[in-house]
Amino acid sequence: MTKTEKGSRKAAFSFLEANTGAPLPGLAASAANRIPRWLLILIVLLYIGHGLFYRDPWRGDDMLGLALARTTAEGLLRGDFSLLLLPQLGDLAWNQQGPLWTALLAIFMLPAYLWAASTASPVPIHLLDDLARIPVALAMALGLVAVWKATDRFARRREAQPVDPLGLGPRASAFGKTLGDCALLLTIAALGLVYPLHQLGTAAIELLLQALLLWALATAPETPKRAGLQAGSIVAASLLTQGVGLAITQLISVACVLLWASPLRRISKEFLARMAITMLMLTAIWLAAGLTMLPDDRMLEWWRLGLIGPSAAADTTASFAIFQSVEPWLRESLWRWWPIWPIAIFGLLSIRQTRLSRSPHWSVPITLTAVAITLGLLGPAHWKVQHIVPIVPLAMLAAFSLLSLPRPIVNLVDWFAVTLFTTAGIFVWLYWTALNFGVPAPLAAKVPLRVPGIVGTANLYEIFIGLVATIAWVALVLWRIRRGAPRLWRPVALSSGGVLLLWSLLTTLWLPAIDRLQGQRLLAASLEQGWLQSASTRLGIAPDVLEKQVAMDRDSLPAAACVGPSQQSTAFDAMAIAASRLPISSRSACLWRLGIVGGPEQETANTTAGQQWRVVWQSNAEDRRGRQRYLLLERIR
């Protein structure tokens, strides 16, 4: 029996040998038609716009980002420009990220404060939230454009061009644009990306910076000096945004790429010289300003915590979760990176006989992905570069992998998308009808248990958007299953369309329920009213007068009329700063402070300080998942 004979071991895996050594035969390459430009722009706008504006800030990075930005904006209005150098949460140092992203969000907030000052009216918190989301939308849009441009540039290179002896394939420009379309759709299709991107955390700017770095590396062989300037600026921006972790990850990635990929190795000296000068110059300017305007120990503490993590002082091994985080990361990544990872894996299997050092369209994204995952898993746990950062190079890998993707894998990805998103869409519609119309009755009985206090708010806008999204999904499925002209991006159309469908339904039909579960607007309002009642009695000021003073002129309040942060729950402190008008301060003279009981943090509010504090307000088990209750404590002596 020969090696290629039917029934042999090699024949069983022969579908992986397709196009080995040649990315795509000429006749197949002729089918690489582009997506209509208007449709691609519409997809990007729908992806960005849905679920970003006109909603409550949600728990986690969303609320924390708003709190940091609001602290910076109010500090700038007071003339405290040091907040542009390192962020603060209230008046407490925040050393877990850089100042660039927070400062950008705060700058977009300033018009709301100026408008409030000119009209002598309180600043609407929802307006601050919406203004802060404009940079998020811009970062998402520019990030997706950078993914497209990087893939397009790599695909135009001679090494990436399909073998086309008959001359029937597309031109290099058309081929590059088609691969760029595929990479963009694959980025949108990533299941675990849509939720963090629509928050005020650093996910959107991380996506943008990693995509820009990939784009700079794509242009480096032709324009090494300009690409070096761009790469140095990107690494410096990463340091000032996400912190030390992302900057070190990108530096190691660039070093590995310059050592491995031969087209970039030839220009490494010019590239590295410009990159190092730019990065060091920008970092030095920031350090000089920081050492001038901030205490020396503040800057040193930021660097120390960025390098070794907050828990290193107590237990050095706790910051380095070597191998301990592999299993949960792998479990999360199976859905976070779907459908990118199976496509990329089969693409890598199909090129295992290719000399990757001479194929930068493979070696560069492989390097960026491998370095981010390795450092994220083996480095300090607070870096967290293994979640969002690898998605950009993985999407590019998957785009090139579409050229040799076996038909069974195409069908698997498509039918998984049809099953998953159709089932999820039906589930969303059923719960919406149960909430608003009581049908079906069994689900209607469960809705108040899942979302206490929720009431039906059906309106024409929800119905219209939901119906349009559903009809578009049905049309997409019908288009996919019918026979038509082969298109390279056809296998990822269902996955990206399914993410758009589900995200659109969730952020329209289910938005009130999500705001009720993930938002904390009602909790913040209740906390604020609890403090106003207590402070009115303690200070002898009418509640309406006190409320106006807090909203318009906090400086006129007595020095002790402030609320100390809990310093135990960052989420609770961030909520109080972001979604309320409480005068949060860490001064020891404050007559009130926040507290928390239950869950992992066992606050001993009534015992740590003896009989000095009493509870004047508490939540009604707002955080049911952690069995926590939030407290407002008043000093009694």
How would you portray this structure in words?
The chain is mainly α. It contains 27 helices and 6 strands. Strands 3-4-6-5 form a 4-stranded mixed β-sheet, covered by helices on one side. Strand 3 (563-564), helix 27 and strand 4 (592-597) form a beta-alpha-beta unit. The protein is globular, with a radius of gyration of 27 Å. It starts with 8 loop residues before the first helix and ends with a strand.
Low-pLDDT residue spans = 1-31, 312-322, 600-611
Biggest sheet architecture: 4 strands, mixed
Structural class of the helices, strands and pairings? mainly alpha
Please state the average pLDDT score.
Answer: 83
Q: What count of helical segments does DSSP give?
A: 27
Alpha-carbon distance between the termini? 92 Å
Helix amount, in percent?
Answer: 55-70%
Hey, roughly how much beta strand do the residues contain? under 5%
The assembly state of the depicted protein chains is single chain
> What would you call the shape?
globular
Query: What Rg, in angstroms, do the CA atoms define?
Result: 27 Å
Can you count the beta strands? Answer: 6
The strands making up the biggest β-sheet line up spatially as: 3-4-6-5
